[in-house]
Amino acid sequence: MTPERWVPEGTDQETPNVARVYDCYLGGSHNFAVDRELAHQAIDLWPELPLIMRANRAFLRRAVQYLAGEGITRFLDIGSGIPTFGPVHEVARLIQPEARVVYVDIDPVAVQHSRLMVVDDPRCTVVQADMRDTETLLKQPEVVELLDPREPVAVLLVAVLHFVTDEEDPARVVRVLREAMSPGSALVLSHGTPGGRPELARQHQALYARASAPMTMRSRDRIVALFEGFDLLAPGVVYLPQWRPQHPESVGPHPELIAGLAGVGIRP
Description:
There is one protein chain. By secondary structure, the chain is an alpha/beta fold. 38% of the residues lie in helices and 15% in strands. The longest helix is centred in the N-terminal third of the chain and has 21 residues.
């Protein structure tokens, strides 16, 4: 795909963008030199970062597969980024062929690329919106249509709330979303945490201060608190590889080195 098709006019190519840096970690090509520079510096600091990002995508895939298997056919992927590998609609439709997905992101490159990817798919739409302005996001026509009060929906907040600062209040974002979700709906959430490397995490956060959104890694207690009002599914909030692994031996002896926590909750 030529850059002319996926780079909207006026796109900031001077500031590293967190969605495009994530694309770098996953081996994607929809990023700029400034994004690759930050990604290379981050990997030099923390060589396991690509592994962590793959573990995060694997968690997303397992969670979507599980919820589709439970009958959920509607998915709201907030902070969806650039869906280079295994987009939600492809994963869900292996189980629910009629699954509908609304992708939401603030980054114009992520939005443009996503729209090109689903241009001929009537059951997928892409919305450009800021999750921090949650009330406005929920008023978007595509989101209103997806959130049918008679149907459960899976709301995905995967590796995105750590880009919401304490002042912007990630708990408020989740709370507003929860009130819009019908009973039986699911919250799928993963979040960066210092894990077993607090000093490395501090350096990583300092590096991301140069990017389009600063990163705030949070403790397990604070991440668990984001599930207030939801019934956590077993095994609760755990390190990424520990959430319902397809092969238990793949978890490894030190899952805390995969510095991300994840969980799935159901709205009663």
